[in-house]
Specification:
alpha/beta; Rossmann fold; 3 domains; 8-stranded mixed sheet; 8 strands; flat
C-alpha cells in the first residue's frame, strides 16, 4: 500500500533536502507537488485541500525557513499533518461493556465481511483470550452461513448453529441469547450486504442494530475500491451509525486513497486493516506508523512486533548458538526463508524499514521476484538430510535431481548454493568477531564490500 505515493513524495522531499535554505516559493512548489501526489493516490479533493492548507501554514513558518535543516523540518510538518489526517492515535476495538459484548460488521457484498468476522474472532480469542461466538445473519447470499461455519472450524471459534427460515433479526436475537447462556465474552454479527447501497440494506441493518444494540458497529470496506469505499462509509455513517472501520485488501491497493480519506470524511477511526487472505493477516491501524511508511521512514516498531509474533524463541536461540560455533547449514537457511515469508516476504519487510524506497526501485529494476523465496524453499526441500547438512557433497548429478524435484533449473540450484556460501562466510565472521567486535565494526566488519553494494 502507498507505493506510488511514497515514491512521489520521496522525490519531492529529496529535492528539498538538497537545498541549504528554503524560501516561501520553494515550499509553495513542494506543496503543489504534494497536492498532485495525494490526488493521484485517489485521496478525496476536500481532504487534500484541508491537508495542504494546514501543512503549508506550518511549513512557511519562521521555525522551518530558518531551521538548520529546513528540508527535514518540512518533512516533519507533512508527517504531523498526515498523522492528524489519519486520526492521530490508534484506536482498538472497544470491548469495555457487560459481556457478551456485541460487535456488528456491516458493508457491501464482496467487501470481505465474513472473512473479516473470522479474523477478528481469531484475534480476540488468541491475543485477548476472549470466548467468542460468531453468527451469520446473511440470508441473502447462498451458502454465506455455511462459509462462516467453515471459517469458524478453521479458526477453532464457535459459530451459531444454522436454523433454516429465520430472518436476520431473529438470528441476531438467538445469537445474543446463546452468548449469554454460554458465558461468551464477545458475539460477532456478520450481516448481509448488497452490491450497492439501497433502502432495504439500510433498513435491515438498522433493525438488527435496534434488536441487539451492539457495542461496536464496524464498516468493512474494500480499499481497492478507492473513493467508492469513502462514499459507502459516509452513507453507512449517516444512515446506520458507525463506531469504526476495517479496511480489507490493503495489500493490493498501491495508492491508499481510501485509508487517507476515510477518517477525515466520516470522523470514524480506522481500527483494523486486512493485509492478506489468511485468518491471521489482520493488523491494528496506527496513524503514526502509516505516516512514517508513506514518507519512507519505515515502521520499525511494527517490524519488531511482527517478528515477536512469528519468531519461535527456542529456534532463534538454537540458531544463535550454532552461529557462535560457526555452524550454519541449509536447514537453517530454509528456516530463515520460512521466517521471511511469514513476515510478509521481501516487499513486506522492506516497506517497514526506514529509507528503503530507492532500494525497492533497484529491486524492481533488477527483476527480483517475490516468488524466489518459495522457489528456494522448494529447492532445499528437494535435498536429502545429508545434502542439507553438508552442501559440499552436492555435485552435478545431485543438482540435476534437486532441480527436477523442485521444478527449477540447475542454474537456480547453483544460485542458491552461492547465496548459502555467502551467508556462511558472514556467519563465520560473526562467530570470530564476538559481540564486542561486532559492536566496534558493525555491518562493515561483517561485509567489507558492502559499501560498493547497491543494495
Amino acid at each position: 500500500m502507498f507505493d506510488a505515493l511514497t515514491g512521489r513524495l520521496s522525490d519531492v522531499f529529496d529535492r528539498l533536502k538538497r537545498r541549504g535554505s528554503l524560501s516561501e516559493a520553494d515550499v509553495d512548489a513542494a506543496m503543489r507537488d504534494v497536492r498532485v501526489a495525494l490526488l493521484e493516490a485517489d485521496v478525496a479533493l476536500p481532504v487534500v485541500r484541508d491537508f495542504i492548507d494546514k501543512a503549508k501554514a506550518d511549513a512557511v513558518g519562521a521555525n522551518v525557513l530558518r531551521s538548520v535543516t529546513p528540508g527535514q523540518m518540512v518533512v516533519k510538518v507533512v508527517n504531523d499533518a498526515l498523522v492528524e489526517m489519519l486520526g492521530g492515535e490508534a484506536e482498538d476495538l472497544n470491548l469495555i461493556a457487560v459481556p457478551p459484548v456485541g460487535v456488528m460488521l456491516v458493508g457491501l457484498q464482496g467487501s470481505g465481511k465474513t472473512t473479516t468476522t473470522a479474523k477478528i474472532a481469531l484475534r480476540l480469542q488468541n491475543r485477548d483470550r476472549k470466548k467468542v461466538l460468531m453468527a451469520s445473519l446473511d440470508t441473502q447470499r447462498p451458502a454465506a452461513q455455511e462459509q462462516l461455519k467453515v471459517l469458524g472450524e478453521q479458526a477453532a471459534v464457535a459459530t451459531l448453529p444454522v436454523m433454516p427460515g429465520q430472518g436476520p433479526v431473529d438470528i441476531a436475537k438467538r445469537a445474543l441469547e446463546a452468548a449469554r447462556l454460554g458465558g461468551y465474552d464477545v458475539v460477532l454479527y456478520d450481516t448481509a450486504g448488497r452490491l450497492s447501497i439501497d433502502e432495504g440494506l439500510m433498513a435491515e441493518v438498522a433493525q438488527v442494530r435496534a434488536a441487539v444494540e451492539p457495542h461496536e458497529t464496524l464498516l468493512v470496506a474494500d480499499a481497492m475500491t478507492g473513493q467508492d469505499a469513502v462514499n459507502v462509509a459516509a452513507s453507512f455513517k449517516e444512515k446506520v451509525g458507525l463506531t469504526g472501520i476495517v479496511l480489507t485488501r490493503v495489500d493490493g491497493d498501491g495508492r491508499g486513497g481510501a485509508a487517507l480519506s476515510m477518517r477525515a470524511v466520516t470522523g470514524c477511526p480506522i481500527k483494523l486493516i486486512g493485509v492478506g487472505e489468511k485468518l491471521d493477516e489482520l493488523e491494528d491501524f496506527h496513524p503514526d506508523r502509516i505516516a512514517n511508511r508513506i514518507l519512507g521512514m519505515g515502521d520499525v516498531v511494527g517490524l519488531v512486533e511482527k517478528a515477536a509474533e512469528t519468531i519461535d524463541q527456542d529456534e532463534a536461540e538454537a540458531l544463535a548458538k550454532k552461529i557462535q560455533k560457526g555452524q550454519f547449514d541449509l536447514e537453517d537457511m530454509a528456516k530463515q526463508l520460512q521466517q521471511m515469508r511469514k513476515m510478509g516476504g521481501l516487499s513486506g519487510l522492506m516497506e517497514m524499514l526506514p529509507g528503503v524506497g530507492k532500494m525497492k526501485d533497484q529491486m524492481a529494476k533488477a527483476n527480483i521476484d517475490e516468488r524466489m523465496i518459495g522457489q528456494q524453499e522448494a529447492i532445499i526441500s528437494s535435498m536429502t538430510k545429508k545434502e542439507r547438512a553438508q552442501p559440499k557433497v552436492i555435485h552435478a548429478s545431485r543438482k540435476r535431481r534437486i532441480a527436477a524435484g523442485s521444478g527449477t533449473t540447475v542454474q537456480d540450484v547453483n544460485k542458491l548454493l552461492k547465496q548459502f556460501q555467502t551467508m556462511s562466510k558472514v556467519m563465520k565472521r560473526m562467530s570470530k568477531m564476538g559481540k564486542k567486535g561486532m559492536m566496534r565494526q558493525g555491518l562493515q566488519g561483517l561485509m567489507p564490500g558492502m559499501s560498493n553494494n547497491p543494495f
